């Protein structure tokens, strides 16, 4: 359980995040690229793009020992908020305070596709703050935990030959090989099989016991309720609910069910007309 009387590991105070989306021409990517090329050839500047207000005044505090799930519809700002906590996404207004160095683990975390899994374990471990000696010491455990060598010697093949699930398992294994003050996991658990998810959940429990804080973004509500005691529900960039994971997930599922019924009714009405 979290030590709610202790010092927070993360404080998000009235954070607003915006970014610019370029492109999106109705004629498709090719026509947009061609139009941009014509503008550049004529010495004109490209369009400024569309501003997206992804996170709108979000505030909360996280404490040591907590595992916190982030849920919400696609485009609700979950991954953007994780990047801001990790220091990878600037905020327009508000502040993000963290204790120690947050580590962001995402399915698309940057490992080198042309390098072998073995080499990526070394590079990933160094990027996570391990020394070369620590990487050597933990190498066998990382590979064994990932399970990617169970059928063949996949660790010696280039990462680009891996399935998305294999790559995600290796990324999680690298990140979870050491303790973190704050570990941010973006969809990594949803790509493995049931056995790997159980291993991952046990490891998250161990990281929490080692006085860290874990944030987990997942579209699997069962993963959130099984792994986390607390959940934050983001919707359209705002914090809609913060509380016990089971209660927040239940409210979110009721919201999505109602929205789905409303959408079905509108579609039926349109067809009837």
Describe the structure.
InterPro entries: AAA+_ATPase, ABC_transporter-like_ATP-bd, ABC_transpr_TagH-like, Bact_Polysacc_Export_ATP-bd, P-loop_NTPase. Belongs to the ABC transporter superfamily. One of its GO terms (molecular function) is ABC-type transporter activity. The chain is an alpha/beta fold and 273 residues long. The chain has a single domain, classed as Rossmann fold. Helices cover 40% and strands 24% of the residues. The N and C termini lie far apart (55 Å). Residues 25-31 have low confidence and may be disordered.
Write the layout of secondary structure elements.
Blueprint (H helix, E strand, L loop, with lengths): L7 E14 L7 H13 L8 E14 L3 E5 L6 H8 L7 E6 L4 E4 L10 H11 L4 H15 L17 H12 L6 E5 L7 H16 L3 E5 L3 H7 L2 E6 L2 E7 H28 L1
Parallel strand pairs: 3-7, 3-8, 5-6, 6-7
Antiparallel strand pairs: 1-2, 1-4, 8-9
Helix pairs in contact: 3-4, 3-5, 4-5
Family: Belongs to the ABC transporter superfamily.
Organism: Streptomyces gardneri
Protein name: ABC transporter ATP-binding protein
């Amino acid at each position: 359980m979290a030590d709610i009387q202790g010092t927070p590991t993360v404080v998000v105070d009235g954070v607003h995040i915006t970014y610019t989306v370029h492109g999106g021409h109705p004629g498709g990517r090719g026509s947009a690229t061609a139009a941009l090329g014509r503008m550049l050839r004529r010495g004109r500047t490209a369009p400024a793009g569309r501003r997206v207000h992804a996170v709108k005044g979000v505030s909360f505090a996280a404490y040591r020992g907590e595992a916190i799930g982030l849920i919400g519809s696609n485009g609700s700002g979950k991954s953007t908020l994780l990047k801001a906590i990790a220091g990878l996404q600037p905020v327009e207004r508000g502040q993000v305070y963290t204790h120690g160095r947050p580590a962001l683990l995402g399915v698309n975390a940057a490992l080198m596709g042309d390098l072998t899994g073995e080499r990526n374990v070394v590079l990933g471990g160094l990027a996570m703050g391990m020394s070369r000696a620590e990487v050597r010491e933990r190498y066998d455990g990382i590979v064994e935990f990932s399970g990617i060598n169970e059928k063949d010697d996949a660790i010696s093949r280039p990462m680009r030959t891996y399935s998305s699930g294999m790559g995600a398992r290796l990324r999680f294994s690298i990140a979870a090989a050491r303790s973190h003050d704050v570990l941010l996991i973006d969809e990594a658990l949803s790509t493995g099989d049931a056995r790997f998810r159980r291993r991952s959940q046990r490891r998250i429990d161990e990281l929490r016991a080692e006085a860290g804080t874990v944030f987990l973004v997942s579209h699997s509500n069962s993963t959130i309720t099984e792994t986390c005691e607390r959940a934050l529900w983001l919707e359209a960039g705002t914090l809609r609910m913060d509380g016990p994971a089971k209660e927040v997930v239940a409210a979110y599922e009721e919201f999505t069910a109602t929205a789905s019924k409303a959408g079905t009714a509108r579609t039926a009405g349109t067809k009837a007309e």
